[in-house]
Amino acid sequence: MYDEFEGHTRYMQALINRLYGYDTDIADKTFTNRAIQELTDEGVYGYQNLIAAYSGVAAKLMKAIAKEGTVAEINSGKFISKYKLKAASSVNTALAKLIDREIAYKSAKGYMIYDRFMSIWLRRQP
Q: Which of the residues 7, 23, 83, 113 could staple to 119 if both were Cys, CB 3.0 to 4.6 A apart?
């Protein structure tokens, strides 16, 4: 749990709160995955609306970053071709917009989706 959310208290607290609400003394991986699924499901409409508000490049970039977890080389040809993104300049423009609107941010490890539950939801999208 700590690794999934990199110690971010907001997400860990939401998850622990959800686990506490279950009628069990054991918070094993099954219950943890169930709680994460419920928490991401609660944000689906917001996530869908957010994706719909962005251009194709920005939406694809959000999904690509989420699927990778952390992206150090956002302009690498390998990353761009793997996710069928447009030119590096289009990726940079989309990335700047996502950072400006606090959808993505750059950590010491690379670029990430700010909302960890949204990132999990995006990973599950085709």
A: 113
Mean pLDDT by 10 residues, the chain (126 residues): 78 89 79 91 94 92 94 92 92 95 93 94 90
Distance CA 100, CA 86 (A): 20
Which DSSP state fits 42?
H
- Please name the fold of domain 55-123: Arc Repressor Mutant, subunit A (1.10.10)
Secondary structure letter of residue 53 according to DSSP? T
Report the distance separating Cα 93 and Cα 38, nearest Å. Answer: 33
pTM of this structure: 0.85
* Residue 116: Cβ within 10 Å count: 22
* Residue written as token pair 């390998």: 78
Structural domain boundaries of the chain? 2-42, 55-123
Q: For residues 108 and 46, give the distance between their C-alpha atoms in angstroms, rounded to a whole number.
A: 28
